[in-house]
Amino acid sequence: MSERDFSARSSNVSLLHLTKRFRSLDGSGEVTAVNDINLEIRAGELVTILGPSGCGKTTTLRMIAGFEYPTSGSIFIGGRDVAMIPPNKRGLSMVFQSYALFPHLSIYENVAYGLRVQKLPAQEIRERTERALELMQLTSMAKRFPSQVSGGQQQRIALARAIVIEPSVLLFDEPLSNLDAKLREYMRDELRKLQKRLGITSLYVTHDQSEAMAISDRVVIMKDGWIQQVGTPREIYAFPQSKFVADFMGKANFIKVQVLGIEGEAARIEIEGMRFTVPRAGKAAPRAGSALLVVRPEALRLLPLSSAQGSAALKGRIDRFTYFGNIARYEVSTENAPLLIETYNPEASFVFEEGAEVGIIIDFESARLLPAEEQEQIS
């Protein structure tokens, strides 16, 4: 079970017009959990499906795994349509939120379980199990039971058991949600390192935005069963295609503006009688009329009101100040919209108190435009 073995076995995954409907609880009709989605996952890629509870992300994962059959549509793994094939015939492994370890089996036996089910020769089972334990740094505790090790070590056991069968695709269903914050961050980084080393195609489901940003080659944002946007973490964060995506992926401010015109990628806008240029307005920018300027909290800068007089700055008042050490967070009221502003390394700059009148400078290089009325962008 070398790293080369995984790279060679990794498969691409294609979802074509995938739909899943369930009977409603009262039996009066059907509820659409996943609605006609299309997605291509390249071999060796780690893609995260991100969205709020009930968006369809776990149902999508369960259909790929074979635990749910689609109402319609196709699931291709390595070019083979597996939509109606049993889970054990798909060449996949899944890491669950609960780890699903056998408490009565040793760590060694937990990892070897899938190989024994396949009825492989004893020597091959021993060799592959030992390599998986070594890869996950579990060799020294192979004779212990799951209850005798920590949560992070249980997660490693679940990973070892998943990779020992050399799957073509690895599925993760919120695998870190049971860990405390510090351990979750550590295991997140370890998991990503392992996936990159092995080059195994991986699909990861989470509701944690920071987790998705940290580990993913690409992120899929879902809402109400629909795919809203697909892109790299940077593309999703810097170029959201809808208000929902902008607000869900990190924090965002929405400033009401008038679009005066579009020239190439740039837009000319007006805010409270002042005119500005947005150099990269984004694909969703309206060509004229009312719009929302999307600005991240770190792209706003505060000035004392006396210093802002005569400058192209919005005027506001500090309603709340929260100090986090490395970040100062301000909630600011303006005539246009309430704003959230974050200043990094606040000790190196002026700290504003609650009630202070301030000027607000916008970094238009990182700002984007969206239609004033919410319009979902379906990728």
From TrEMBL:
It comes from the Bacteria. Keywords: ATP-binding, Nucleotide-binding, Transport. Residues 13-249 form the ABC transporter domain. Gene3D superfamilies: 2.40.50.100, P-loop containing nucleotide triphosphate hydrolases. GO terms for molecular function: ABC-type transporter activity; ATP binding; ATP hydrolysis activity. GO terms for cellular component: ATP-binding cassette (ABC) transporter complex. Transmembrane segments: none annotated. InterPro entries: AAA+_ATPase, ABC_SmlMolc_Importer, ABC_transporter-like_ATP-bd, ABC_transporter-like_CS, Mo/tungstate-bd_C_term_dom, P-loop_NTPase, Transp-assoc_OB_typ2. Pfam families: ABC_tran, TOBE_2. This is Ferric transporter subunit ATP-binding component of ABC transporter CP4-6 prophage. It comes from uncultured spirochete.
